[in-house]
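debug: dumping io for the single-chain case to check the tokenizer round-trip. Nothing else runs in this session.
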Amino acid sequence: MRPATAENIEDKFASLSPEEKASVISHGVALRLSEWKKRLFLAESKVRSFEDKYHTSLAELDAKGLPDNAGHEMHEDYIMWHHWTEVVDRAGKQVSALQVIATYGIQC
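debug: decoded output
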């Protein structure tokens, strides 16, 4: 068996019938959409927990700045809050893009 290369994998995929290509892509989209929705749910949960803990949004905190008496924990939370907010943005975009494909399908 020869080693897989991008070219021979693409050739194999290209040799499939249009229906089979659409099926492979549709199943892949369904799996990826599920993964991204889970990631989005987790990230949104993390952001909500920070909002509940500090009784503010990250945008408000960014505008005001951290309080002078902010401790080590708040500084760490602030960094993680930014991280999870970025994950929400990225995952939301992926979910939206994949939902379009899942809704309208693939035209081969």
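debug: round-trip ok. The radius of gyration is 21 Å.
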